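Pilot study result, target chain (373 residues):
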Amino acid sequence: MRTAYRLLSTAVAVGAIFPFGMTSAHAETRPIQVETAAWFWAEQVGGEAAGGVGWPVTVPRPASGVPEGDLAVAYAGKTEVNPETQETEAVPDKETYLMWDVYDVPQGSYVDKFVFTMFVDPAATTNTALPEVAVPGQPAKGGQPILVACLPTIGFGEADGEPFTDKPKDDCSSQIVGAYDAVKKSYTFDASVIAQDWVDGLDNFGLAIRPMMDATDPFQLSFLGASKVTATLTYTPATPVAPVPTYEPAPFFPPVQPPVDTNTGTTVYTPGTAPQPAPVPQTAPKPVVKAPKPMVVQNVAASPLRSSRGLSPTFWFAMIGGVLLLGTMSLILGDPLEPVAGTRRVRTGGRHRLAVPAGAPVRSTRPIRPRTV
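Predicted structure:
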């Protein structure tokens, strides 16, 4: 039970990561035919006969030992010093060039595999190879020759035993070694990396089939023609990417100003064009001034001392209270003084009366007239 539960949980997790119905890029595999084939012969010569006869001087093709319609690769034991690397290299006697059309593969695709196979022509009587000789402590000599595929530096056209002066130069810095099949008598080359470069946009000049750069044993091999060369290309198309929207600003057209006559200073309008309106002057905005706070004036009529019909009752009560207060003060202040014993009142020249002791002499400029109090 626990094992079944774990299997079910794993299936659910995998389904969550890889949803059902999700399709992956599908790899396409198809055979492709050789588009251009050529082989060149080092012993072939070119040019015109001596004396300017005009007839080309060539070596008869049957002298090459290559059947009609076949391709050839051979090494005759010649070497030369490479001026760039200063190394001694084997010079091919015969060399084959092949080119395939892969331009229909969408750019950005991934090349899974590109292999091609060349079959040795069993009917060719000139196929030669030294027998393998094993020497103790030394590499084996002779045997089946090793062939490599290199990159031509320029293109080529159809050729059948043309001189080496017409063949492209080889770049063997990344050579591909062919695998020999003793049963099928064939050489197979895996050129997937080079095909990927072609799909990515590198110039497609095909491939050169030649002896190894350090070959030492002479040989010659004739292969069946270009129509018998098999090639298979497997690639995965690139996943389409949604285009990213781009923003394009609206075009700006500056206003066309009418020409001005520099002599008179007047504006000249050309026929068919409308005059441009003069720009409206912009007035500066007025500063915002806050309105003063209104003053509150109290209405006299609304005073508590007044009513709508005249003086208010409060005013009259205050008035009556004031009169009573003044009357009371006048009664208190106007009460006559009682005479002191042994004193008498004397009237002076003024309005005041003085109380003086009895028997005290009183001087007066006017006679004193007794007054009954």
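One observation from the pilot: Helices lie at 2-17, 192-199, 313-333. A full batch analysis is planned for the follow-on phase.
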